[in-house]
């Protein structure tokens, strides 16, 4: 097999890359890293065992019944779709708006997007009573159904997100192919195959930039579509709490908020454990904090819009649903989510001191937890209030309390997504190497000029 | 004076403590009495369906503050003939309407004319043991259909074992004919019609009842709450309804209706969008292949 010659960079670039590669090239995990991987593997394995149990006995091992067929599996699916939108936010929207400070976060956001969207698809399969018939969706699906729109848009978004993760990484892969020493043969082979004979020629660069630009533009409407279509799965039905024209933007704005929180959490973790303080600076946190505040305000606006008018009218069964949320069984969760998952982070992040790594980590975790439980509050209480009267059913069908098997299987999707991210950072630089070097070069040129 | 004041004070305290003690005791006693096991009332109904399947339904209620409430989630043990383990038929739980239902088929060898069924509530925390027993006689309900000169008739027959044990017609049994609809049964015959000496009751069937797309109707004959037979039911599908066919082309073109009704414009737009996205993906993959090819040109080895 022909092998391209080593890429020759300019002496300054070579020097910068050498310095950067010490920090950015993936390193073997220490004890803590190994423990972390073991924990994720163990958790995923336990979930797999419970899922095999579910495959064997059916959905009876869950608390999903006729009135609540979508429980935490579908809440989790919506959460994953939501958090995956961050890929388009950082890699596309911020790129097109010329925010160069986003460079260290691009790959984080893309790997979060890819891992999340993979597990979003898996979460749907988990909710299926007959997962062996999954392919029926493709064989017999009707294009008129929002379910099929969702299947199409998720598949498309997964492909585009994967390409947007992979294509900008080509120069880094080529660098690792040529200069990454002391790694196993298979790892070297992996870089060699994935680098696609990258030689940094002007023609290759032109094609790469064009591909990235096209993807950057295309991913924005697809990202909006993926979560809007997910919201339509609910809004296209006539149910209290879902029958809303506000659902598309409400879901999209919430998705951007939780996505930004996801990236901030990853930034703090990588900064701390991968020793990347120089790459995730206070300035980055300040900017991400401001971004999160703006996104939270937009989401707050849509929340007010979503609840205020129905609460003002209190019509029919809608009022029962809202009372259940505001003062009923779901009230503690509802108000905790609104206050701790949105109001408190907004207040804290408005202050400069709040936009430091530690407070931002705490606020981001609150936002993520709030976002997960918010999806639960969107899915479950509505299902408990159908328009058709509930008659002649066992008492326990009227409520939904996820079983421990459901919780474990759901947890497995989270640990699975974290495992993908963990494996990725073990093999690839989480901060773009060549792009960072280019930026240093660009900054130096500007300074000299 | 001061001593008397202290005494009065002490006395007041003693009275107060005594009152509190009495009050607490009364309250405790009251609590104990409310915590006593409640009395449950069981009503038991027997159903014989198509002369084969049998069903027992026990309805359990209890009186709370003067009103009857359903007792849900308690196990009811159904027995045949005698309330002992060897005669146990089954033990379902009551649903939210306080009903425990048991379907069962009688053994083929069972030739008894009278059967005793017993529903028992026992060892349920919060409730006193309760029992209900009913005795039902073997009976048969069936019907035939005929069409004479465009008049459709349903002939219902009720029979039961006579003194010799042979099945014989039973007169003066109130039977009704229904047509099964989606959420219930539509009565076709009058409420107060009884079988004649031949055990028969003929009902003229109307010709204007909508059926399914093939014009099929499910006819159901019932004898309800008979003092000897309990409840009898017999059903049969007949092609006597008016075939109902929906002309979907006249329906609004909602997106969720059949594919043939979907707006063509919608299908074209969606497919164009899909083609566009697939086109982009193909374009990107092509770019990647070209990048690889460009790298191959000028390789050293």
Number of helices of chain A: 17
- In the CATH hierarchy, the third-tier topology of chain A is known as Formate dehydrogenase/DMSO reductase fold
Fourth CATH level, the homologous superfamily of chain A: Formate dehydrogenase/DMSO reductase domain
H/E series of chain B:
HEEEEEEEEEEEEEEEEH
Strand content of chain B: 35-45%
Structural class by SSE content of chain B: alpha+beta
Number of strands of chain B: 16
Q: What's the Cα radius of gyration of chain A? A: 23 Å
- Helix fraction bin of chain A: over 70%
Mean pLDDT of chain B, as a whole number?
A: 85
Approximate shape of chain A: globular
The SS-based structural class of chain A is mainly alpha
By DSSP (H or I, 4+ residues per run), the number of helices of chain B equals 2
Secondary structure: helix percent of chain B: 10-25%
Low-confidence spans of chain B? 28-34
The poorly predicted ranges of chain A are: none
How would you characterize this protein structure?
- The complex is a heterodimer of chains A (449) and B (301).
- The mean pLDDT of chain A is 91.
- In chain A, helix 2 (31-57) crosses helix 16 (404-427) and helix 5 packs antiparallel against helix 7.
- Chain A is globular, with a radius of gyration of 23 Å.
- Chain A starts with 10 loop residues before the first helix and ends with a helix.
- Chain A has 449 residues and is mostly helical.
- Chain A has 17 helices and no strands.
- In chain A, 73% of the residues lie in helices and 0% in strands.
- Chain A has one domain: Formate dehydrogenase/DMSO reductase domain (Formate dehydrogenase/DMSO reductase fold).
- Chain B is α+β, with helices and mostly antiparallel strands and 301 residues long.
- Chain B has 3 domains: 40-137, Immunoglobulin-like, CATH 2.60.40; 140-238, Sandwich (Immunoglobulin-like), CATH 2.60.40; 259-295.
- Helix content of chain B is 22%, strand content 38%.
- Chain B has 2 helices and 16 strands.
- Chain B has helices spanning 2-34, 264-296, and strands at 40-49, 53-64, 67-70, 77-80, 88-90, 99-104, 114-121, 130-137, 140-148, 151-161, 167-169, 175-181, 184-187, 200-205, 217-226, 230-238.
- In chain B, the strands form 3 sheets. In chain B, strands 1, 2, 3, 6, 12, 13, 15 and 16 form an 8-stranded mixed beta sheet that branches. In chain B, strands 5-4-7-8 form a 4-stranded antiparallel beta sheet, with no helix packed on it. In chain B, strands 9, 10, 11 and 14 form a 4-stranded antiparallel beta sheet that branches.
- In chain B, a hairpin with an 8-residue loop joins strand 7 and strand 8.
- The longest helix of chain B has 33 residues, at 2-34.
- Chain B is flat.
- Residues 28-34 of chain B have low confidence and may be disordered.
- Chain A binds chain B through residues 2-5, 142-145, 152, 156, 159-160, 163, 167, 170, 196-199, 201, 203-204, 207-208, 210-211, 214-215, 218, 222, 392-395, 398, and chain B through 72-73, 93, 95-97, 255-257, 259, 262, 267, 270-271, 274, 277, 280-281, 283-284, 287-288, 290-296, 298-301.
